[in-house]
Amino acid sequence: MLFSMNVLAYFIVPSFFLILITIIYLKCLSTLSKTHKNLPPSPWKLPIIGNLHQVGKDYHRSFLKLARIHGPLMLMHLGSVPLVVVSNAHAAEEILKTYELAFLDRGESHIIWKITYGGKDIALSNYGEYWRRLRSIAALHLLSNKSVQSFQQVREEEMTLMLDRIQETCGSVVNFTKLILSLNNDVICRLALGRKYNGEKFNTMVEQFKQLVVAFSVGEYIPSLSWIDTLRGLNAKSHKIAKEFDEFLEDIIEEYARRNTNESLVSKIDMVDRQDRSFIDILLEKQREDESGFQFNRVTIKAVILDIFVVATDTTFTTLEWAFSELVKNPLVMKTLQKEVNLIARGKPKITEDDIGKLEYMDAVVKETLRLHVPAPIIPRASSQDVKIMGYDIEAGTRVAINAWAIGRDPAKWEDPEEFRPERFLNSSFDYKGSRFEFIPFGAGRRGCPGIQFANTLIKLALANVVYKFDLALPRGEICGNMDMSETAALTVHKLNHLLLVATPRSEIKLV
Ligand code: HEM
């Protein structure tokens, strides 16, 4: 007993204090080194929730409001998650170009990961070999110029259907929002899945999926409170939607796989040469061909299709909706565009895809729409290493939100930024790829959008043909200048209220 008391007195107690002092010392050292870091300016924050209370539903606006006080590179804390918000072209250039390699990840997001097979798609997978392989398959075989051209017939057929629907309204009110939405969905379904899916069940499934992508998850920012998500039913809901989508895609892929197995070798060769193969056809073929050991399985195919479906439909649809709205709101712009389209069409019944490249003013109208109504207001990235940006330390694992919406209307770069003036893009060096960082609707660099050509072709084809064939006006003689342009933030920034227009066929005289 005496011996054990001695051991306690001479060894254990001093050792315990020694360990305690070492821990405290190391903790102090790490805090000291952290505080010695030159972190970007931050808004004040509350315990546990950090800056969450300062971010509204239209987060791009909340971020800009705070950036006006704290600067173009601002560090926030959403719960326990550090987030750097980038709000001007110079800071965006540092992230997307100068130190691009440090910012090629997306960061992991609970709910989205659950419904996208754990980030196995192109848009969410972190930078690395898996992403590189997927991205190159998409760029070379799904979204290349050649591939986009091969779907010309699908686009033109769907566009003709839309024009016929407008024609049938005989000058009464048309819901343009619904028209554009169905044009987009039908084109993308036919390209990605091989046929149209637009029944009530399918539309609800897509809508619920999009809502989940932007659903606020408490557990994501405050892990200790993740039980709230379970209580709110968010986890169950995401599980249900993921399962529904998975079964839907699984059935389609299985149908394709069965069909391919039954086909003779000759018809398989025919398939490769066919111009209208769907993305599933192409992906299954890439899976069969792959001998590199690349992890290309059913899940990969489903994730890629899901990706394209979600990113392609909403962004392209939103751009068209805003473009038509701005054209109606600005009659002079509409007139100039109609003049250009008439000149190129020379009385032909329709504008074709071959005409589109000649429409310079149209290009400026699309760019101005994307500047003022950038569909994806925030470009998400994450840092994979410690790096210094504009003299500030950004730690590895920090999420980054590039506020493309704020950058597109920065008065330091744009004269009268709130005005819709396509002329500012005429004879300018702006392209869609983000070579000038005050205009980055498609992001920039290695992770920039691979769907630019795909989106642009459909947007310009639809715009050109509608304004060529119809004069558009607001219903009940409403005045264009007072047009409702309120926004709502969902997966992308939409018009809050549907776009209702009256379309009058243009007379033959006006078309030549
Ligand atoms: C107006 C239409 C569109 C806009 C404004 C848009 C915008 C964007 C933006 C901002 C990004 C992130 C870029 C970055 O991190 O630098 C992105 C990524 C992506 N977009 Fe688009 N997009 C559009 C249409 C499309 C279409 C039609 C497709 C496919 C058919 C598509 C496929 C993708 C994919 C796969 C990615 C992920 C790229 C990666 O992470 O490597 N997008 N898009």
TrEMBL record:
In which residues is heme bound? Answer: 449
Biological processes per GO annotation: sesquiterpene biosynthetic process
Pathway assigned in UniProt? Secondary metabolite biosynthesis; terpenoid biosynthesis
| Record-linked CDD domains | CYP71-like
By sequence similarity, the record places it as follows: Belongs to the cytochrome P450 family.
Q: Give a single Pfam family match.
A: p450
**Transmembrane feature ranges:** 7-26
- The source organism is Ambrosia artemisiifolia (Common ragweed)
Q: Which UniProt keywords apply?
A: Heme, Iron, Membrane, Metal-binding, Monooxygenase, Oxidoreductase, Transmembrane, Transmembrane helix
Organism ancestry: Eukaryota, Viridiplantae, Streptophyta, Embryophyta, Tracheophyta
What cofactors are annotated for this protein?
A: heme
* Gene3D superfamilies in UniProt: Cytochrome P450
Protein name per UniProt: Cytochrome P450
Write one Gene Ontology MF term: oxidoreductase activity, acting on paired donors, with incorporation or reduction of molecular oxygen, reduced flavin or flavoprotein as one donor, and incorporation of one atom of oxygen
